[in-house]
Design a protein that fits this description.
Its EC number is 2.7.7.87. Strands 2-3-7-4-6-5-9-10-11 form a 9-stranded mixed β-sheet, sandwiched between helices. By secondary structure, the protein is an alpha/beta fold. The relative contact order is 0.15. β2 and β3 form a beta hairpin. α1 packs across α4. It is globular, with a radius of gyration of 20 Å. The structure holds threonylcarbamoyladenylate and magnesium ion (MG).
């Protein structure tokens, strides 16, 4: 029931874009690639269209959506002003994997986009397909990741199909996404700009441009989740995930313990662990190449569901640079649990 059109293919490209634009104008949803993950888009000014996103994903209504634009000028239509730090970030990082939380102009977007908050998350994606679509449509597009709520975000069109086939009319297929983790979310409405969700644009990169940046810690999030989405369980395969020390010996011992309990084990880890005797091994690439690990993580988590593994082990990464975003997602997938319990 869900149609897929490849835009890498010259003969279907033009038709694909035209169909996507027509569907969005008609108040339907369309999945499309961005440089981070695939998004499920709808016209951000159309409340009925936006409702279809929540329905298809099974997403809680209190979790606001990110609005995507094809040009910077577009944001003036739905924000009251652009804080100075936001201006610097736009110059330095757009188009790119950085979502800015800005003050929302009342009654400018569909109410359900921002879930009743007086702020709105905005970004200009850096993917040629996303930009082409947004520039043809000339309207802001509300788009969360195109997965069923709680699942890892989709990094290729097949993942979107697996989660949403029959629930959405159309997928624009632009191949695998580049970064593989969702955008950094930066709150520009607080006195000190605050990272609500770590991503491809790191704290170090932001501080070079705007000076001091805060990072909301998991404990802050539990007390008062400022990015409402961060309080929900996320990214989890069916089998429980456990974080574990990044040591060959400790991992091998853990697997032996689990095998004695007749449990099958999947290991999601960098190549240095490939010699470990385990039932299923999903590599995240070379240990020092964090960008590569980010790119492969969600597919690895999804692959666990194709196995009969009872337990998933994930040796931890350093939290430097993109490692901070990788660990943020792994901690969520594991609900913070370490092995042994
Ligand atoms: O890379 C991405 O950001 C992808 C692609 C499709 O652009 N989108 C994405 O959207 O990850 P989503 O809905 O899965 O995550 C949006 C996050 C959630 O944690 C949400 O709570 C937060 O951004 N958010 C959105 N609007 C907000 C607001 N006004 N204030 C605080 N947090 C907000
Ligand atoms: Mg999401």
């Amino acid at each position: 029931k869900t149609e897929i059109a490849s835009v890498d293919n010259l003969s279907t490209k033009e038709k694909g874009y035209a169909q996507a634009v027509d569907l969005l104008k008609a108040g339907e949803t369309v999945a499309f690639p961005t440089e981070t993950v695939y998004g499920l888009g709808a016209d951000a000014t159309n409340e009925d269209a936006v409702r279809k996103i929540f329905e298809a994903k099974g997403r809680p209504q209190d979790n606001p959506l990110i609005v995507h634009v094809g040009g910077v000028e577009e944001i003036l239509a739905f924000t009251t002003y652009i804080p100075e730090v936001a201006g610097f970030c736009i110059d330095a990082f757009w188009p790119g994997p950085l979502t800015l939380i800005l003050p929302l102009k009342p009654n400018s977007l569909a109410k359900n986009v921002s879930a009743g908050l007086d702020s709105v998350g905005v970004r200009m994606p850096e993917h040629p397909v996303a930009l082409e679509l947004l520039r043809r449509l000339k309207r802001p597009v509300a788009a969360p990741s195109a997965n069923r709520s709680g699942k890892p975000s989709p990094t290729n069109a097949g993942h979107v199909w697996d989660d949403l086939n029959g629930k959405i009319p159309f997928i624009l297929d632009g191949g695998a996404t580049g970064i593989g983790l969702e955008s950094t979310v930066l709150d520009c409405t607080s006195d000190i700009p605050t990272i609500l969700r770590p991503g491809g644009v790191t704290k170090e990169m932001l501080e070079k441009v705007i000076g001091l940046v805060n990072e909301s810690k998991p404990t802050d999030r539990e007390e008062a989740p400022r990015a409402p989405g961060m309080k929900y369980a996320h990214y989890a395969p069916n089998a429980p995930v456990y974080l574990i020390d990044s040591s060959l010996e400790i991992v091998q011992e853990a697997i032996e313990t689990l095998h004695k309990e007749q449990k099958k084990v999947a290991l999601i880890a960098s190549e240095q662990f490939q010699s470990v005797a385990v039932d299923y091994f999903f590599t995240l690439g070379k240990e020092e190449q964090l960008e590569e690990a980010a790119k492969r993580l969600y597919e690895a988590l999804r692959n666990c569901d194709e196995t009969d593994a009872d337990v998933v082990l994930a040796p931890v990464f350093s939290k430097n640079g993109v490692g901070s975003a990788i660990m943020n997602r792994l901690e969520k997938a594991a609900s913070g649990n370490w092995f042994p319990l």
